[in-house]
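ok trying this again, last paste got cut off
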Amino acid sequence: MHGTPRRTTLLWAALLVATLLTWWVGEDGATGPAIVALLAVISIVKGSIIILDFMALRHAPLMWRLITLGWISLVWVLIGLAYWKGLSQ
């Protein structure tokens, strides 16, 4: 079983709230390392919810979870390095 309709609805609502929060941060024009870190955490959480629950990989073999969650981590490590390098110039 991949979850209940109630859980799916709650996760969908959490994704919606997270999306609205990131939109609001962008509209507000907030900047800086703390904002980038906040947006990174939100996107990692959103991606993890999508991968584990909506792609139904929560109970998949460990290899598939490591590949998909590792991809999110790798992307954010690269973004973080590029951001940090840009700050140091």
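PB: full thing came through this time. The chain has a mean pLDDT of 95.
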